[in-house]
Amino acid sequence: MYENEHVKLSCEIVKDLLPLYHDRVVSQATSAAVEEHLAGCESCREEYEALCDALPEQEKTPSTREKFLAMVRRQKKKRLLALALAVVLAVGAVAGGIAALSELCLVDLRPAQYEVRKVCRIDTEEGPQLFLLWNDTWGGYASITDRKEVREGEKSVLAVHKRRPLLTWGTGVGHDHSQWMFVPDDQDYSAVTFNGETVWTAAETEEAPGFVYELWDIEQQMRLDGGGAMGYEFAEEYVYLSYNGQEQYWSWDGGPLEGSPDGE
Question: Are residues 36 and 73 in the same domain?
Answer without folding.
Answer: no
